[in-house]
Amino acid sequence: MSNVYANELDAASGQVILIPSGYNLSLGGTILNENSIPPDPEDQGGKYLISDGTSASFKNIGPVSCQTFFSSGTWTRPSGINRIIVKVIGGGGGGSGHSEAGAAGGYAEEVIDVRGISSVYCTVGNGSGSGTYYSGNGGGGGTSSFGNYLSASGGLGANQTYQHCGGLGGVGSGGNLNIYGGGGTGHMNYMGFGGGGFYGSGTLSCHGNWNQGTRSNQLKAPRGAGGTSGYQGSYQGANGMAGAVIVMEFR
Amino acid sequence: MAKSCLVDYRGFITDVVEPGDEFEVYQGDDSPLRWVTCDDDNVTNLWVLYNGEFFDSKDRLERNQEMKRKVEYGRVEDQLDMMYWDQVNGTTTWKDHVTAVKSNIVKQSVADADANFYSGKKEFEMGSEEAPAWNSLPADKRQKVTKFKNETVYEPGWELDPTTNRPRYVGE
Q1: Residue ranges per structural domain of chain A
Q2: Which of residues 99-118 of A touch B (CB under 8 A)?
Q3: Number of Cβ pairs < 8 A linking chain A and chain B
Q4: In DSSP terms, which residues pair with A32 in a beta bridge?
Q5: Which of B4, B10, B44, B45 is the best substitution to test chain A (most A C-beta atoms within 10 A)?
Q6: Each residue's pLDDT tens digit, B25-74
Q7: What is the DSSP annotation of B110-161?
Q8: Global pTM?
């Protein structure tokens, strides 16, 4: 081993000083070679420098697109998508009368590395179609699911747990976040809101001066919400809202 | 024949499908949902599972005679209105109404003392996360489903890791 002591290196000819392939420079013990040099940033504005495990390159990363399923269907991984955030909410339970209201579907949310996945079937739970009259069983909402990764059960209908009680909320499972949907109101004199899910509570409740308002607006509510009750005993409660599966896609 | 029911730990059914039409759900050990088999083809999502039996929730035994009376009495303002017109007209509408309710809906204590009052009704108690409702079924009725309609498709060389419930690379 020989030492060269210098404060400045100049090429003997031309303007290039060559260190042949296979040779390294050591700066304070850190080895530098041709793979240590980042790619040329020219024309790469706004991009991130990303390693694939063997080399680095400039790429667009972050959120790219979003697929929303309001009915069951297949999610197919778009080219270049590496990770997704999936949000799943179950269907809402139906309402009856005298304030007895349905519950909201449960909710689950998860970050998934999808590099090994080609497609996943998304099941979207129906909202209860059994919104009914006072003291009747409002019926439960269906379960929503993103394959076998995460699921959210439907909210129960009014009177489905016990008579004169609001429905019990559905529950999320398998996600990084798993929560219950809000329950429905129990028996009172007039009218009560359908249970609130992750995206909000049921449609409007109405007094007798617009006694059909709840039923005629039953689908104007957030996904997964429980059905609001009808006015007193003579008006039908709202159906539950259907669930949803939302897939946010990232490079 | 039989139906496949997706039931939650409390014993409530969220979905009913034909065997073989089950859709994928999260099935980890902590899952609050499970596919189970019901031998009664009439099962709907208005039914419940309790003590190993599926039955319509309207057949549950519920001791709520007092509530039934309260509802039938009607709103206080409506009863006051009846009383007012009884005073004005010298009638007994309100008293007759209350008498009819008391006659038609027996007191809770009377119902409880009558051995036949709840005939045909079934006890129901919700399951818990520690003791889910499906535990009461025979093992062959609550086996984990392993084959689903519209299963997840993996890229070549990848599969589901049953431990982590995430895709894992196993090589092509």
Answers
A1: 63-251
A2: 108, 112-118
A3: 129
A4: A25
A5: B45
A6: 999 999 999 999 999 999 999 999 999 999 998 888 888 888 888 888 98
A7: HHHH-TTTTTT-B------SSS-GGGGS-GGGSPPP---TT--EEPTTEEEE
A8: 0.84
